[in-house]
Amino acid sequence: MKSSKTQTENSNHESVHITSIINKTISIPSNNQEIERLKSAQKHLELLHGGTGEYICIAKKENDAYSQFMIKYDDLQKKLCNLLNRENIYISQNSFSSKKRSNQYIQNFNALYVDLDYYKNQRFKNFTHEKMDRLIKKEVFSKGKLPLPSIKIKSGGIQYIWLLKNYPNSKNNGFIWRTAEQYFINALKQYGSNLVVQDSVRNLRLAGFAHAGTGETTNIMGKPTGKRYSIEKINKNYKIPIPKENIHTKDRTATSLHRKSPFIKINENRLKDLHRLIELRDFSLIEYHCRKCLLHFMRYLFIITTTTKTKNVSAEESFQYIKQINSTLKEPLPKNELKDTITAVQSARKYLIGCKHMKFKKGEQPGLNFKNETILNMLSISSIEEKKLITITSEDEKKYRINLNNRIKTREKDGFKDGLTMRQRKKQHNINGIIEYIKLGDNQKEIADKMCISPSLISKYMKIINELNEI
Q: What mean pLDDT is reported for the chain?
């Protein structure tokens, strides 16, 4: 646990955006403890991203405020010490080609990873990190079920990371990576692997920084091997099944046969939205009916999105999936009440399986076709939460998004580049000019005189430039 002094110091931190912290004057570690923590963070960063020229994401969560910043490896190594007095620092596992943390901008898949929340499992609740690691080594790694991890990180639970040899992003590579990632997570499911942590843009805790929940410092466990695996050899050695219909080929006719219907795509996005909702609410759903409805929806959507013409999802598979989701909640449903979600969902499952070979007209898709309004009301989703969801939105939010897209399109038609108005373009022109003058070594007063702009406006633009990290 933290000392009262440490708690007082951390409570005095304002929720400052990570950009401001990173870009301030580089600080120097003040004691041996800080030096050791900095070395641990730099070692973790070097193992994961060493030698890369792409962008990586550094993020922090402080006072329930989450902020992130895209930066290149060499720059981050120099500025890590600025974050030493902060808690909950996270790093992206894969690298990006742009300053955007999005699937489409992933440059390289650097690692496969499993976030093991073993302490949420009643069987392992009182295990130490070392004892849990020995157990998994004995039952999983020694028996050849998975390769030995390249890095093991001691955080709230344990992060297992398998580094990959050069594996650039593409449609096929992205699918193969996701298949391998899901295989690794499922292999450790009985030990408490977090099913939510399987996306390719995921940030995980960085070694050397405190975990606000436990008060302990996140550290590298043991001596990391640093070994980089070939994902092709992993798939071959562990016989990871990769459905051929999901591999993109030049034969458009072949791939078109396996395109997902709009009904499946919508429900896949709905399932992602419900995962996102759990994260937005910090895994806390106080109201009993909300928890029960959420798990009911998620189990049904899981069955819809995974049932295909060649595969039926068993009752046990869907129950294990929802059981894992339930275990991540701070106030989980009791096991006997969790089973109550089966009846209605299973009847819908049988109906879906019986009808899956039939063709239906628009609006006649079988099953429990919940409206978005129903889900919004039953889960008490607020308008603020709506804005962060993909599909589960009200009519007002849909209209707002349509109008926003129309405004951007109109601006583009009127000749405004990138959808900017004349005022916005003038502002961008001024910012670009200030950046050029700063590179020439001019101070703010000299820039104001040269550009005929007031010093106060120059200061305002400087704040924007610092946030964007354009210098």
A: 81
